């Protein structure tokens, strides 16, 4: 059994995918980018602002599932430039709980809408 999770006040999907999906005791959050959920416009600023908005978008979907970042067990961070790693890491650290999830960070050639960052997550459902 699968259940689609959509945050009422969250970003709208840019294609044929579910923003979140609950299945077999897990919640899978699709890759989120730094788009303002109200306007759909990308946030201005560098990696710090884009990382913050991206994590806030992940939080919106988790909240719609009745979860928080404390329930996340794994994230993947996709960076346009691995040179942004330190600044991303500092911002990311302000959002994750005391026991942070496992994480993979990779540099990629290009991201949707030419953003600097995309993050997906897997959480243990309650």
Concise account of the structure shown:
The chain is 23% helix and 29% strand. It is of the alpha+beta class and 126 residues long.
Describe what you observe in this structure:
The chain is an alpha+beta fold. The protein has a single domain (2-124), classed as 2-Layer Sandwich (60s Ribosomal Protein L30, Chain: A), CATH 3.30.1330. It has 2 helices and 6 strands; from the N terminus they run βββαβαββ. It has helices spanning 47-64, 85-95; strands at 2-5, 20-23, 26-32, 72-79, 102-107, 117-124. The mean pLDDT is 96.
Brief descriptors of the model:
globular, six-stranded mixed beta sheet, 126 residues, alpha+beta, 2 helices, 60s Ribosomal Protein L30, Chain: A
Radius of gyration: 14 Å
CATH H-level superfamily: RutC-like
Largest sheet: 6 strands, mixed
Written as H for each helix and E for each strand, in order along the chain, the element string is: EEEHEHEE
Terminal CA distance? 15 Å
Point out poorly predicted stretches: none
CATH class value: Alpha Beta
Q: Which structural category do the helix and sheet elements fall into?
A: alpha+beta
- The fraction of residues assigned to DSSP E strands is 25-35%
Number of strands: 6
Globular, elongated, flat, extended or rod-shaped: what is the shape? Answer: globular
The helix count comes to 2
Q: Return the CATH architecture.
A: 2-Layer Sandwich
The strand line-up of the biggest sheet is: 1-2-3-6-4-5
Helix content: 10-25%
User: What's the quaternary structure here?
Assistant: single chain
Average pLDDT number: 96
């Amino acid at each position: 059994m699968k259940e689609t999770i959509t945050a009422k006040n969250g970003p709208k999907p840019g294609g044929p995918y579910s923003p979140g999906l609950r299945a077999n005791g897990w919640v899978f959050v699709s890759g989120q980018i730094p788009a303002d959920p109200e306007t759909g416009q990308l946030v201005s600023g560098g990696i710090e602002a884009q990382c913050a908005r991206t994590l806030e978008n992940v939080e919106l979907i988790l909240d719609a599932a009745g979860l928080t970042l404390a329930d996340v067990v794994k994230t993947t961070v996709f960076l346009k430039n691995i040179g942004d790693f330190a600044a991303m890491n500092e911002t990311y650290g302000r959002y994750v709980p005391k026991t942070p999830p496992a994480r993979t960070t990779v540099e990629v050639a290009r991201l949707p809408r030419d953003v600097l960052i995309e993050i997906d997550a897997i959480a243990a459902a309650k």
